[in-house]
Amino acid sequence: MKRFASVLMVMVLLMSAIFMACSSSEEGTAKEGDTVKVLYTGTLDDGTVFDSSELHGGDPLEFTIGQGQLLPAFEQAVIGLSINQSTNVSIPADEAYGPYNEEMIITVDWSQFEEGFVPEVGEKLYMRDTSGQVVEVTVLDVSEAGVVVDANHPLAGEDLTFEITLVEIVPPPTPTPSPTPTPTGTPDSP
Fold first, then answer.
1. Rounded CA gap, 190 and 179, in Å?
2. How many CB atoms neighbour CB 144 within 10 A?
3. Are 102 and 109 in contact (CB under 8 A)?
4. Would you state the pLDDT for residue 6?
5. What is the pLDDT of residue 24?
6. What is the mean pLDDT of residues 68-73?
7. CATH number assigned to the domain covering 102-150
8. What Rg value do the Cα atoms of the chain yield, rounded?
9. Would 77 disulfide with which of 20, 63, 67, 89, CB 3.0-4.6 Å?
10. How far apart are CA 128 and CA 151, in angstroms?
11. Cβ-based neighbours of 152, under 8 Å, separated by 6 or more
12. Alpha carbon 166 to its chain's center
């Protein structure tokens, strides 16, 4: 009797896992909490492509909707899409990487660099801000006074447009049932 109950419990767990996986794919539309794969192209107002799946080898971008891995408006644009359905979303600068801030152009004293290191204009460097967080900066000028860097995000002040195509809703992992001990020598054993 106990063996039958154990087998029945395992079957119920497996059936519920299969039902959850099927119901997610039967629904066929992306929703909050789903892990999805998308192809995308990001452009600026002048049509310049600043990022795309193609620039990353053509592989789809995988993320979980609502976990804050990407710009919120990008994640929200995927909600409700079906497999192979596309959408366009325009994200104003304030909702993307914020406005361009002139105060984020700073001169770094030479004492902050290793001796003999001379960066080039346009070079990307990684520096720590006042809170200790590592930020990418772009070298604007090099002089005896120091190195002028821009700590704004490269897309600060830019309105962004994305064309997004949903290519897959990744099924949730199937729960692995824990092994059930097999009773031996119990009075209920056949």
1. 21
2. 5
3. no
4. 41
5. 41
6. 96
7. 2.40.10
8. 26
9. 89
10. 11
11. 100, 101, 104, 105
12. 14
Contacts for 51 with CB less than 8 Å, ≥ 6 apart: 40, 41, 42
State both tokens at 159: 């309105």
Rounded distance, CA 151 to CA 147, Å? 12
Q: Which residue's structure tokens are 């192809």?
A: 39
Pairwise CA distance, residues 57 & 137, whole Å: 26
The residues of the chain that CATH labels 3.10.50.40 are 29-97+156-170
Q: What distances in angstroms separate CA 128 from CA 50, 134, 140, 143, 152, one per listed residue?
A: 25, 4, 18, 21, 14
Instruction: Report strand pairing: 146-150 vs 160-170.
Output: unpaired
pTM (2 d.p.):
0.69
SS3 category, 5:
helix
What digits encode the pLDDT tens for the residues 120-157?
Answer: 999 999 998 889 899 999 999 999 999 999 999 999 99
Calpha distance 145→142 (Å, rounded): 8
Q: Where does 29-97+156-170 sit in CATH, by number?
A: 3.10.50.40
Sole residue written with tokens 């119990």? 186
Residue 164 predicted with pLDDT over 90: yes
Q: Kindly report, as residue ranges, where domains of CATH 2.40.10 are found in the chain.
A: 102-150
Per-residue pLDDT of 93-125, as tens digits, reads 999 999 999 999 999 999 999 999 999 999 999
